[in-house]
Design brief:
Blueprint (H helix, E strand, L loop, with lengths): L2 E5 L2 E3 L5 E8 L4 E10 L6 E6 L5 E3 L7 E6 L4 E6 L8 E10 L6 E5 L3 E5 L2
Parallel strand pairs: 2-11
Antiparallel strand pairs: 1-3, 3-8, 4-5, 4-9, 5-6, 7-8, 9-10, 9-11
Length: 121
């Protein structure tokens, strides 16, 4: 079985910073894209940022310049450094990874359980 374990959420004041981390574990052959999504109350889940195994990144427009995604392929981890946080960044943040479990199998999407980020004074 595959598990994505997130950590690092919490309460922060506007303008503050938080770093989220996610570690993948289980019988994994390969991980393609890893990323972060978020879902605020009453809204659909949206992409925050994602990164390929080769290090190529893309960000949602509202996060560019404030958030930085990185990964460690050897440790199977992905992190999200969030700076200049705003109240509208408040959401549950989910780790996502496209994972291959066997050499000839397809890549499937896996999700973490989510970690709450609250930006409030």
């Amino acid at each position: 079985q595959v598990q994505l374990m997130e950590s690092g959420g919490g309460l922060v004041q506007p303008g503050g910073s938080l770093k989220l981390s996610c570690a993948a574990s289980g019988s994994i052959v390969s991980i393609a894209t890893m990323g972060w999504y978020r879902q605020a109350p009453g809204k659909e889940r949206e992409l925050v940022a994602r990164i390929t195994s080769g290090g190529s990144t893309n960000y949602a427009d509202s996060m560019k310049g404030r958030f930085t995604i990185s990964r460690d392929n050897a440790k199977r981890t992905v992190s999200l450094q969030m700076n200049s946080l705003k109240p509208e960044d408040t959401a549950v943040y989910y780790c996502n990874a496209r994972i291959q479990l066997a050499p000839t199998s397809r890549f499937d999407d896996y999700w973490g359980r989510g970690t709450q980020v609250t930006v409030s004074s």
